[in-house]
# Entry
Amino acid sequence: MISIKQYAEERGKSIQAVHQQRKRKKYKARLEGHVIEKDGVYYLDKEAVKILDSAHETTVQVVDTNTKAKIEKMEHTIENLRNRENNLLNDLNKKNTEIINLQSKIQQQTEQIAALLVENKEKTLLLEQYKGQNATQNNPQSDSESRKKGFFARLFGK
# Structure
């Protein structure tokens, strides 16, 4: 014989839950003669313990089925998330590689532009030197001759 209090403590239930289970129509008839009251304390014999435990096992199985389905669904969701994460990481790696390649191209083009600017500057200096030499060769008039001309003649090139 075991008290309802002891039964509840061993099963991790409240005393009130055990009393409610004992009073349910489903178990009341089966428990008749197996629950004894002494001095306001209810005691369960071995048969009563089996009846109450069997009810608990049925409930646990229903919960287990539900829980198992939820776990499978969550595992499936986790697997999908892992796959998505891997795909995103692959995309990120591809984008990083593209960025590195583009940066390399930009650097090469910047170097080419710098070289072209230096070359352009050199050619501009050579052109200016050439124009300077050509101007002195084509204009043999001395400064004294240009001073002899009047203002308007020099202005209009006559």
Observations:
- The chain has six helices and three strands.
- The chain has a mean pLDDT of 85.
